[in-house]
Amino acid sequence: MSLTLRQADPEDAMDMARVIREVSAGVADFLLHRVSLAVSTERLLASLVMETDNPFSHENALLLEHDGRLAGLLLAYAWERAGYPDILQKLVARKRLEMLDGMLRVADVHSLYINTLWVDETLRGTGAAGDLLECAALLARDQGLPRVSLHVWNDNARAVRFYQRHGFTVARHYDVPRYRQLQHDGGFSHMTLALAPETAPPQSAPGP
Question: Which of 12, 36, 117, 128 is the most exposed place for a label (fewest CB within 10 A)?
Fold first, then answer.
């Protein structure tokens, strides 16, 4: 199977928005349910993707493509960039933001935070998701960050097992009240992965 990895650009906004909404498991709709009466949730997300200098920007995304179609997405950025985009603070009720504060604002200090990691169903079990995790580790090292962090719903057993298999451990649990728009129950966990220090290449012996 031939896959291509590339940097996202503004033209990918709608495809990325669709995936981000899907992976959010109802969070995007929960936050934007009143706003999206006028503009769809995906269009609002796409507007963030098209812009720069916000966590959801295309600048922070790598795409996997198969036969010219989106097959995988890694949206990740340095921990200090985690937070609410300005549009959310202006349009979303503060109570709803605070309810998911741990997911929306908290990232492990000095880590690369993975907002979204997704592969198409046809690629699941092929190692593509693990390859994207490796890309995240490389990005973290390139930015001088010793850890990778993310959030996962506690009842998403498959995802929890996947991240544990790749060395992630739970740093903290967060409780979330049950809401109809949210597709998961039981709260979520903040998981973190400490990257092994890079070893310097062996020095060649000096000549005679």
Answer: 36
For residue 135, what pLDDT band results from cuts at 50, 70 and 90?
very high
The set of long-range contacts for 200-207, using a CB threshold of 8 Å and a minimum separation of 24, is none
Give tens-digit pLDDT for 144-160.
999 999 999 999 999 99
Tell me the residue range of the domain where 41 lies.
Answer: 4-194
- H-helix segments, 100-202: 101-104, 128-142, 157-165
Tally of structural domains, the chain = 1
Which residues on adjacent β-strands are paired with residue 117?
74
- State the pTM of this model: 0.87
Q: Quote the crossing angle between the two packed helices 41-50 and 13-23, to the nearest 10°.
A: 120
Specify whether the CB–CB gap between 146 and 140 falls below 8 A: yes
